[in-house]
Amino acid sequence: MTAPRIAKSETSKKPRPILALMEARSQNDYKFQKVIYKTNRSIMRYSGFSDDGPDFALLHGGGSYSGKPDKDYWLDYLLPRSRSVNMIEYGVAALHRSTIEDSFQDARAAAQWIAEVPAAKAGVVLMGFSAGAAMAVDVALTMAPDDVAGLLLFSPVTDLSADGFKSKMTGDAGHLNLSPVHRVSEEAGRLACPCLIFHGVTDSTVPLAASRHFAQVWRQTQTGPCHLFEVPQCGHGLDKLQRGFARSCAELDAHFFSPDP
After folding, report:
1. What is the structure's pLDDT at 70?
2. Deepest in the core among 80, 211, 237, 261, taking most CB within 10 A?
């Protein structure tokens, strides 16, 4: 695998050759750097305002078939609370002819880069949306436990077994080896980080019952706390709605960013 590269900058402790660098602005007018973490895959990296804060890694949804890093609306909330916010591009079938396994491998590679270059002082918080939440759980279970500062899951896909979530990419047999609820059950005691789950009560894409079951399994097998927030009058992708986003931010303030969550 080609080693990730980042451009030399004033904050880089170890100058590295430039593979690709683009300074641009988001819709919120925040500057970001585009870092190539592997061939044809990039991270949009925004510098946060808190030197002691964690690094956030955002994994979008789309069922590994489509989707893109389009979570700019989170920047106003996350940047003051973080050292960096990293929106990950991973392979999807519609654009890259990727398999679901390729998508998960990309997510692992990107998160590892975020953890190591430069070293994340306060760890990495993995934010996953829909199918991206399944990748976030997978990444948390493959990283060094001390590198994972938290899991924030929104409308999460938590069951990729034959009886679980179905999409263009899952197939009838499912992907038990990538299924979050099964992996968490099998790897008991591995995760001490907090896990916060946000799920719309009227979600017709991923039933709320799946998150309830995942939260129950987490509490039985992992040492980190797990909070499930059931958001009324919200469906799939609840964080894109004003009601869902406001509730998410309020619960994050109370249960994740507070001194004693």
Report:
1. 86
2. 211
